[in-house]
Amino acid sequence: MSTKNHETDVAFIQALAELLRENDLTELQVKREYGEDDSLNVRVSRQQPAPIAAAPVAVAAAPAAVPIAAPAAAAPAAAATDDDDPASHPGAVTSPMVGTIYLQAEPGTPPFVSVGAQVNEGDTILIVEAMKTMNHIPAPKSGSVKRILVGDGDTVEYGAPLVIIE
To answer: Which biological processes are named by the entry's GO terms (predicted)?
Structure first.
C-alpha cells in the first residue's frame, strides 16, 4: 500500500509541475489529505531569472520616457546621465510592487501629475494595480515633477523607477 501511495504521490507532483509550467507560475503549494493522520504537503517552485532581469530594462527603455524628457533637453549631458539609470537619481520614486501603472483615476479624467507639476508630500502621483487592487502611490516628498518614466498601462517590476521629483 505504501508503494501505491508513493507512485500516486509522484504522479501528483509531476502533474503539479506540469501545471506550474503550463500556466507560467513561479510557485504552487497544495496539501493533500488521505485520512485523519495521513497527508501530503507539496510545494513546487521555480526561478525565472531571465524575465525578472529583462523587465526593468524594458521599462527603463520605454519610448514614452523620451518625449517627456524633451522639454528638459537644455542640458544634454545631464539628460544622458539620467537616461542611463533613472533609479539612481535622488528624486526617483520607485515602484513598491509588481503591477500595471495607471496615470489617472479612470479613463477620460486628467492625470494625477504631469511634467512640471508641483506635488506635496503624500499626494497621489499614480496608481499601481496588483491583483485587482488599486494601490495609490504617494509622493515621498514635496517638489516639482521633472520626469515621468512610465506610460499609462505599462507593467512594472518591484523597484522600477516611475517618476522623478526634485
So the answer is: fatty acid biosynthetic process
